[in-house]
Structures are given as C-alpha cells and as structure tokens.
Amino acid sequence: MISKSIKWRLQLWYGLILVAVLVGFGVTSYQLERNRQFRRVDEEMHRRVGALAQQLHGPPHGRQAGRQPDPNRLPGRMPEDRPPPEFGDDNPPPGGGRGAPKFELTPQLAVLFGTNVPGNFYFRIHLVEGDHREIARSDNYPDRPAGGPDLDNFFDPQKQGDGHAGKFNNPPPLNFEKDRVVEDVLPSGEVIEVGCSIAPELRELDLTALKLAGIGAVILLLGFAGGWVFVGRALQPVTEISATAAKISAGDLSQRINTSEAESELGQLAAVLNSTFARLETAFAQQKQFASDAAHELRTPVTVILTQTQMTLSRERDAASYKQTVEACQRAAQRMRKLIETLLELARFDAGQEVLKRLNFDLAKTVADCVDMVQPLADERHIQIESDLKPLEMNGDSERLAQVVTNLLTNAIQYNQPNGQVRIKLAGQGGLAVLEVADTGKGIASEDLPYVFERFYRADKSRTGAGNAGLGLSICKAIVEAHGGTMEVSSVEKSGTTFIVRLPLGV
Amino acid sequence: MRILIVEDEPDLLASLAQALREEGYAVDTADNGDDGLFNAEGTDYDAIVLDVMLPGLDGWEILKRLRKTKKTPVLMLTARDQTRDRVKGLDTGADDYVVKPFDLEEVFARLRAIIRRSTNKTTNIVEIGEVKVDTAARNVLLKDKLVDLTAREYSLVEFLALHRGEVVSRTQLYEHLFDENESSMSNLLDVHVSNVRKKLGAEFIVTRRGHGYCIE
C-alpha cells in the first residue's frame, strides 16, 4: 500500500535526496572544521620546529625551519662547531653525541613546551642517520607504546631515494591517538619531532560533529514535515479527482471535480475529466431515456394483451369473441415486433454493426420506384406527387436509401391535407446528391422542429397507427449518416414541411 | 354507475369498455382528447378513466379544464411510472392512477375506491335494515342470504344505496345506469325497480312521485 502511494514514494525520494545533501554538507563542514583546527595546531608545531632548529643551528639562512629547503645544504654537512645542546633536567640523552650538535633549552624556548603550556607541546631531536642518537627531548615527551609507529625510521632518507632530506621539510603531520606529531629533517641531519596533544581539538570536533548531526536531524525532520505538507497539498487535487471518480463509478454521474486550480497540470486534467464525465452523463441520460421510451412504447401493446385476455377469460364466450380477442392480441404482438425490430436496427446503427451493401446504382431510379410504391396511398388520400428527378449515379446501399425515401414520402402523405401535394426533387450538387421532399401539410411547430429526429419524438403525440412509435425519422437519419450524409428539416406552420437529404455520391 | 373511458388505442379501449360493462357499469367511450373533454363536461359520470397520451388534448389538459367545472373522480392511465408523472397527475386533480400495463382487477378496485370516496363512504358495505350491499363483491345480502340480482338491478340498488336518504331523480338514474348507446325507454327503469322490490321487499325502494326514488 505504502509502496504504491505516490505520496509515500515522493516522500521517500525527497527524503533520500535530503539525507544525501545533509550528509554531504555535514561531512564537508566537519572536514573543513577539522582542517582548520589541525592547521592551527600544525602552524603552532611548525613554529616550534623552526624555533628548535634555530636554537640548534642559529638563525636560518634565508629560510625558516620546516619551510623551503636549501638545496645546497646536504644532510651530513652539519656544523661541527656547534656546542651540544643542553638536555632537559632529568632526561639525559641516551648515548654520546658523536659530532652531534649541542642543544640548550632556553627559557624563551621552554615557554613553548611543557605540560603547563596550552596544547602540551613536546619535542624530541635525534639524528637521522646511524643509530638515530637522540640529542634532546622535552620532559613531557610521551612514551610511545611498543608496536607504535616507528618514528625513528619513519623518515629514512635511504628509503626516499636520492637522499634529498630537504624534500621532507614541512611533511604532513601525523596523528597518533590523541596526539599530533610533525617531524622535520634538517639538512644538517637532525630530525626535529614536535608533537602536541590534540585531545581538546578532538573533543571540539566531536562536539561539532554532534552539533552538525543535530542540526541535520532537525533540518531533515523539518524537511520531511514540510515535504509531507507540500506533497499532500500538491496531491490534494488527485485525492479530489479520485473521490469524485469514485462517486461517479458508484453511479452519481452528476458529480464534477472542482477545477479552481485550472491553470495547473492537475487542473487541466480535472477539466478534461469533467468534460468526459459530462459526455458520459449525457450518453447515459440518452441511453436511459431511450430505454425508458422503449419500455414505454411496449407498455401499451402489453396492456392491450393483458386487458383483452383478462376480460375474455373472465367468463365463457362464444367463438366470435375469442376470435376478436386473439386478433387484438395479434395486432398488439405485431406492433411489439415492429417496435423491437426497429429498436434493434437502431442499436445496430449505433454500434456501427449495420453493414451497408454498397453498390453503384442510379439514385433517381430508386426514388422513382419508391414514388411508385407509395402512389396507392397517395391516391387513397387524393394527394398528388410531383417528381423532378435527375439521373444520378451514386455508391451506397440502395435498399436502405429506398427505406429513407419511402419513409419521407409516407410521412409527407400521412401528414398532408386532403388534396394536398408532395414534391420530390433530386439533383446533383458538387459531389452531393440533394433530395428534397416537401409536403403541403399543417407543418411542424417550431418548438417541435429541433426534436423531430429524436427517437420516440412525436410532434402530435398521437399513437394511432401501429409502428408509429416516433422512430421512423431516427432510422432515416441513422441510414443517411451511415452513408456520410446529412439530413435537415424546415417547416412553415400551416403551409408545409420540407426534408432535405444530402448524400455524398461516393463514385 | 356510469363511467367514461378516454383512450386512443382502439383494442385497449374496446376491452376496457367491455370489461367494465360486464362489471355492471354503464360505459361511454372517447378515443381522443377533444371528444373526451366534451363528454366529461356534458354528463355527470361516476368516474372517468383517462389516458395521459392522447391525440388532440392530452390527459393533463382534459383534467385541468374539467376540474374548473366538475369534481368527477378521475382514474389516470399512465405509461410512465416515474414519481414526477404521478405527482403531476395527482396535483392536477386526478384521484388515482394506474400504470400500464395493468391488470383489469386493479382498475376495477381503484375505480370502486374512487367512487366510494366521492360518495363519502369508508367501507365497501352499505347496510340498510336487513339488506347489505357489498360494493366490492358487487352483491346484495338479505338476512345474510345472497340475493340473485342482474347487473343492472345491482347497479340500481348500489346507486340508491350510495345516495341513501337522497331522492334520486329518474333522469339521474338514467344518466348513471345507462350509457349513451342505450335508448332511455322510460319503462326500462320501472321494470328494474319493480324487480328489485320483488327480491328485496316492496318497501326497500320508496317512490317519491314527481321526484324520483329513494332508499331511506
């Protein structure tokens, strides 16, 4: 569930990125702080190395101890005339100094070292070659545990190739547990080792790390909370959309999504969905209306059958009454059959399943045949049919189109006045066949006109005549539209109605 | 009891009319709205069976116009059973409705009910001394024994029983017992009255000379 929630996934990725950024930032800050602390310590140590070197050999010749090496001064060429340094009080140097320089810890130097000096700096000076004889060491020089790094041999010039000790000047300091040590090899062959305790720095760094971690955690928490709120707000329309969609799927098609944020992407989505829902609602309403109308049309014949049979069966009848009843039932059943067939036909057109038998034929001849067919009906009502038909080759389903023409003609005769006229005209017009059927009937009221092609719509509400369920024009329209044509109607009340069918010739 | 049926489907109209005649009602018919309204306004029917969808004036319109002059009970026949259609019918002044397709029995029962209500009766049984008239079963009991009456005789008893205490004129009786197709031979009514008196007792129907008949 959580892994499928966009909110949680966004939050997870967002959180991961935030953690990465915070860790990167924290580590960098820690490193910078650490470097700053150590650089300060290192500067202090190098200063002391310089002071020791100066004490050992006098002022440097244009250089500071631990800085630029003098390439002319090679190791081993140490001044022999220097007095040996004085060693610390109770820490005599091991062994004697063969040609070793003298060292004396002056008071000026002493303030730089010792346990009471902040940082607890200490030093040790020994020769780089031979037995690494020690020249001097401070009182607080720590005893390194056995197995620790071999500082004596650490800067073995033999190991470093061509013996240029100068390249070891200003070497990187090293950390031993809570101490930091720098060693410098003087050109004269002595190694000055200066160290100090960095316990306070380490403590401070630990504190810094803790602070960074704390700040990071707070930022992460705030980020998560903020992210949660923002993601929630950003996804709010999605929640609304899904809630609305759920209501719609539950059957309430009138629901719409609030599109107040129409300018955002989700607003556009909501607008698209809303228009889809509107179309769905219309389609469903039409479908519902259609089903309701169909049921309604079936009610009357069913009622006829029920009342006829119930009435007849209520007592013994003579044969003639039974015959009458059966005939009435048959009429009702025929009416239902016609209705059902028409409905199925319309449904097939709707579903696009009605296959047109497309052939090339002369539309004028088809229309003329239809006129001949309805002629008896017209004669019966003393209605005159005037035909004006231009031969017109077209491609289409001649039977279906004949159905349209017959239907229009029958309507024109049925809704005409006695001794009225029906005019039927067929002509080509720029790739279209234009068929006009006009009557001289009472016309269709303008408020009914937009609905005449709607299913079950009857302008006069009359039910007389089986099969007149108000579906004839709907079928005509479906057939014409299946041919890619259009159908329209115009009417003047009390003077007549004209139907115009336009069909692409398709040849 | 005389009833008008307004219905445009000929087979339905015919079967309804015949069925109601066989139930003992006098039945007039109209197959379009205009004739229906004309009949309904011109005659005092005991009830009108009115279809909604009609050529010419539709059922709603007939009802609306009829209610300006008459309180005749109206039973609507509707093909739509949606609430708004029923509400519209009842609000326009219909007394009841049945939805197509219906059973004849239901139409009969609803007709009896609206007629009963229009005569301010609450039950189907009217007791007159030792005579009981059951308008639901359409029969008459004398001392709890079924009396054999013809449909027309029963209608006469029923009409007078429902208007108990009122003097019913011969014209009224003709209007309510015979439909428009029957010739109103004046002695036909006398024959029925005399037959009823033979079966239920001479004093059951009182003659008010110059006014009509009465059940007291």
Structural Rg of chain A: 55 Å
Please work out how many helical segments of chain A DSSP would assign: 9
- Helix-strand string of chain B: EHEHEHEHEHEEEEHHHEE
Order of helices and strands of chain A: HHEEHEEEHHHEHEEHEEHEE
- Helix content percent band of chain B: 40-55%
Distance between the termini of chain B: 20 Å
Return the CATH topology of the largest domain in chain B.
Answer: Rossmann fold
β-strand number of chain A: 12
Question: Can you characterise this structure?
Answer:
The complex is a heterodimer of chains A (507) and B (216). With 507 residues, chain A is of the alpha+beta class. Helix content of chain A is 47%, strand content 15%. In chain A, the strands form 3 sheets. A 5-stranded antiparallel sheet of chain A has the order 2-1-5-4-3, with helices on one face. Chain A has a 5-stranded mixed sheet with strand order 7-9-10-12-11, with helices on one face. Chain A has a two-stranded antiparallel sheet with strand order 6-8. In chain A, helix 1 (6-57) runs antiparallel to helix 4 (199-249). Chain A is rod-shaped, with a radius of gyration of 55 Å. Mean pLDDT of chain A is 79; it is low at 62-98, 145-149, 155-168 and 463-467. Chain B has a 5-stranded parallel sheet with strand order 2-1-3-4-5, sandwiched between helices. Chain B has a 4-stranded antiparallel sheet with strand order 6-7-8-9, covered by helices on one side. Chain B has 8 helices and 11 strands. Chain B folds into 2 domains: 2-118, Response regulator (Rossmann fold); 125-214, Orthogonal Bundle (Arc Repressor Mutant, subunit A), CATH 1.10.10. Chain B starts with a strand and ends with a strand. At the A-B interface, helix 5 and helix 6 of A face helix 1 of B.
